[in-house]
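Example record

The entry below shows one chain as it appears in the dataset: sequence first, then structure tokens.
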Amino acid sequence: MDCVALLEKLVGFPSVVGTPNHAIAGWIADYARAQGAAVHTLPGPEGDRANLFITLGPVEERGYVLSGHMDVVRADEPEWTSNPFALRADGERLYGRGTSDMKGFLAASLALLPKLAGRRLKRPLHLAFSYDEEAGCRGVPHLLAQLPALCQMPLGAIIGEPSGLQPILAHKGKAAARLTVIGRSGHSSRPDLALNAIHGISRVLSTCLSVSAALEEGPFDASFAPACSTLQVGVISGGQAVNIIPAEARIELEVRAIAGQSPRQLLEPVERAAQALTAAGYGVEWQLVSEYPALALPAGSALAGLAREISGQEPLAAVSYGTEAGLYQQAGMEAIICGPGDIARAHKPDEFIARRELAACETMLERLAAQLS
């Protein structure tokens, strides 16, 4: 199968984040085994989802990882002009959910396997395909925890998020949380007999605003836009009617942190404000929904030099969105972002990737393969 045929197959699996992924993972595993690769299917704690770790070459040597996620965001937008889970070709463009983010990179990586099958590799090539990246990189930590039993520590990981094949050296870290405040319902004419959950959670919202304002005062990293860490509340809900005192209110919030700041620690003042509500009789449920660290790869690192060589592009200092790259770096290896497509097309109707972008990614990966022989 060529790269486009592989992409067509992958897009055909509606592997939406947070849902079982055995269909796509099983097909990829069977395909990789047919190319002579060693395949490890690594179930996650959810029981219905799994990561994949695929290797060609000597596992006792240090090689490189091509990392990508199998999940995609939902495709419910009415603006889609074709079935988002059936690849549609229109000249140079290939339309479908996940074409840019990031099944195009998966397809190019899988297309490399038969080209390497007959070679005697001095170093291994690993494909690490994860689940639920779109839910805050939930799947890959389970893969990375098992890495020492699967191979020698890799020399580096290329995370193939859509970057126009421009290597990216850094991104912000993130932590997201969900807070539920529970009071007591009652008629609005007798607030003295009830406990208004919205009023309670408003105290926490005040802390969110204070923390957000403090972060705008620095520290700063000019590589990012904005140059500071940020906090924002993205969801708020609660109440039924104006004459019913609400018994429950909920917010969801996130922090995005520049390198050197811990996303979870930046959330701590908000969590403390939430827990303080218990003294007033409220119930408090605080849940850390997702967390991943920032990526910070030095421009002079070996992996940055390799990425420059195989992509033919100068690395970009930083982006503000997040990826699994920071988790690979935290696990002890160099990591960099470099993949086909455009992040601006991701999570939108009529997502697409261009044929030339896939072809350029195949060329880049073949240059990497030459380093392994």
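Notes for this example: DSSP finds nine helices and 17 strands in the chain. The chain has a mean pLDDT of 97.
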